Amino acid sequence: MSELVAWPVMTGRAVRLSLRNLDALLTSFLLPVMVMLLFVYLFGGAIQTGTDYVTYAVPGVLVMCASYGASLTAVAVSQDMSRGIVDRFRSMGVGAGAFLGGHVAAGTVRNLASLVIVFVVAFLLGFRAEADLQGWAGAAGVLVVFVVAVSAVSAVAGLLARTPEAAGGFTFVVLFLPYPSSAFVPVHTMPRWLHGFAENQPATPIIESVRGLLLDRPVGSDPWKALAWCGGFLLVSAALSGRLFRDRAR
Description:
There is one protein chain. This protein starts with a helix and ends with a helix. The protein has helices spanning about 5-20, 20-45, 55-85, 85-90, 95-125, 135-160, 165-175, 190-200, 205-215, 220-250. It contains 10 helices and no strands. By secondary structure, the protein is an all-alpha fold. It has one domain.
């Protein structure tokens, strides 16, 4: 099977597997919504951000949603590697690119559906974007690139993990990352010793880019920083995935 044919076949297979895993699918849809409701209704009144809290929090919830949904790719890849089905794929000429690319593409599709749900709930809660078409396109582009990058890193994590349970630990790491950032509170309100990490970790420029683009505010260099982080994730993932796939598939 040629790589050109294998890519859509592996993508379709990974999408079908996602649809069959209803527990993970519902969690990826509902968890970000529950987090948004929690922060808006329980904590929002006590947090001062200079604007309606739902308006401030939605970009952070979107990135959290993308992070968690993309991290599920690690579990899916690990499950395939532990079941021996990869040997059958290799006998059919399916390489690392098509196999992992299918999982990354399926994760992206799953995340886009989840992001749409988060947007609908956000609008029901009172979120209003001030962006024009260009701003919406820019915010969507940043989110999609981020989803692809995290999905690629998750695929590598799935190759490294020896069991699906161990791969599930990666979801905790990715889910936690938006908290010490500008997702839910301004960085300047955090303890001083945390400022350096919060300002320079990957979630902050991604969130600030999405927030600025959706609210039609200056974004400065944040989009370039966000794309640099995502590009770095993709390069590292591409460099490691082929070698790790060959080692695990021996």
